[in-house]
Design a protein that fits this description.
Layout: E1 15-19, E2 25-32, E3 36-42, E4 45-51, E5 59-65, E6 69-70, H1 74-81, E7 93-104, E8 107-116, E9 119-135, E10 140-152, E11 163-165, E12 168-169, E13 171-184
Antiparallel strand pairs: 1-4, 1-13, 2-3, 2-13, 3-6, 4-5, 5-7, 7-8, 8-9, 9-10, 10-13, 11-12
Length: 186
């Protein structure tokens, strides 16, 4: 019989940890012409971290407002909101629901279901636990996490890709996910 995995290694109090939006970010990176990376972010998102007595009882949920995409180019952002990409009129929100957490110390794997444009696929994120600190302004306890992962946009029905030549797409299929999340104790 295997002993339950304890969340005490994280030093997190049980309960629902709320997102500190002012110290969090949801970003992505995609290759353009096979030559350079284009970076973007989403400015409107929510997330919660439910901490239970074991890792099996830890859950993460998130919603991202796809219309809040910002790549530092207004025309590109408008195109990303169109039916060629996110189709924000019909599918305004991207969601994530965790299915498992594994690891210990500072390094974890967070598996879950990601839904974009009505299509749900499993995704695994590598998560680094950055520790906890008491915020001096209000004495609340904050916990920080950095997470990375990769998806293929074509898996979510986002197939827009004009051939640029030499079998390269103008826009790569692989999308790197970069998250920096800070949560506040219950």
């Amino acid at each position: 019989m295997t002993a339950p995995r304890s969340t005490t290694e994280l030093q997190l109090a049980p309960g629902r940890w709320a997102l500190d939006k002012n110290h969090s970010g949801v970003s992505f990176v995609v290759r353009h012409l096979g030559l350079s990376n284009v970076r973007g972010r989403f400015d409107a998102f929510e997330a919660t971290l439910e901490v239970g007595p074991t890792l099996d009882d830890v859950a993460v949920t998130a919603e991202v407002d796809l219309s809040s995409v910002d790549t530092n180019n207004a025309d590109r952002d408008t195109h990303l909101r169109s039916t060629d990409f996110f189709g924000t009129d019909q599918h305004p929100v991207m969601t994530f629901r965790s299915t498992s957490v594994n690891g210990a110390g500072e390094n974890y794997e967070l598996a879950g279901d990601l839904t974009i444009a009505g299509i749900t696929k499993p995704v695994t994120l590598d998560v680094e636990f950055n520790g906890t600190e008491v915020f001096p302004a209000d004495q609340s306890t904050h916990a920080g996490f950095s997470a990375t992962g990769q998806i293929r946009r074509s898996d979510f029905g986002i197939d827009f890709g004009i051939i640029a030549g030499a079998d390269k797409l103008m826009l790569g299929d692989k999308v790197k996910i970069e998250l920096d999340l800070q949560f506040v104790a219950p």
